[in-house]
């Protein structure tokens, strides 16, 4: 949130606690299996930043669909949505 405030973002994204728990926990388990405690720490940090930052990319796309103020907090939805927004923006 501090980065969004420092960049004068018009939207401050607060990630959902349930999504952070399950996505970050899963990432931590896989990170621990492949990289030990360092893998768990780095993996969970990256997913935490992605959970907060990726919805900001789709925020304008949702406003164009008439559902401004909505976001999807999961990383996979945001990556696929940003990709589809980019592809469909070429044809629009």
From TrEMBL:
Keyword Transport carried by entry: yes
Coiled coil: none
Membrane topology: Multi-pass membrane protein
Source taxon at top rank: Bacteria
Keywords, comma-separated and alphabetical: Cell membrane, Membrane, Phosphotransferase system, Sugar transport, Transmembrane, Transmembrane helix, Transport
Pfam family, one: EIIC-GAT
GO biological process terms, semicolon-separated: phosphoenolpyruvate-dependent sugar phosphotransferase system
Signal peptide coordinates: none
Cell compartments where the protein resides: Cell membrane
Segments traversing the membrane: 12-34, 40-62
GO cellular component term, pick one: plasma membrane
Function: The phosphoenolpyruvate-dependent sugar phosphotransferase system (sugar PTS), a major carbohydrate active transport system, catalyzes the phosphorylation of incoming sugar substrates concomitantly with their translocation across the cell membrane. The enzyme II UlaABC PTS system is involved in ascorbate transport.
Subunit structure: Homodimer.
Protein family membership: Belongs to the UlaA family.
Name the UniProt record assigns to this protein: Ascorbate-specific PTS system EIIC component
């Amino acid at each position: 949130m501090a980065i969004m405030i420092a960049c004068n973002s018009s939207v401050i994204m607060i990630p959902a606690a349930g999504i952070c728990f399950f996505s970050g926990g899963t990432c931590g388990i896989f990170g621990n299996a492949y990289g030990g405690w360092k893998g768990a720490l780095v993996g969970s940090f990256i997913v935490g930043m992605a959970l907060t930052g990726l919805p900001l990319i789709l925020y304008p796309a949702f406003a164009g669909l008439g559902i401004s103020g909505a976001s999807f907090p999961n990383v996979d939805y945001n990556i696929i949505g940003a990709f589809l927004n980019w592809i469909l923006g070429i044809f629009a």
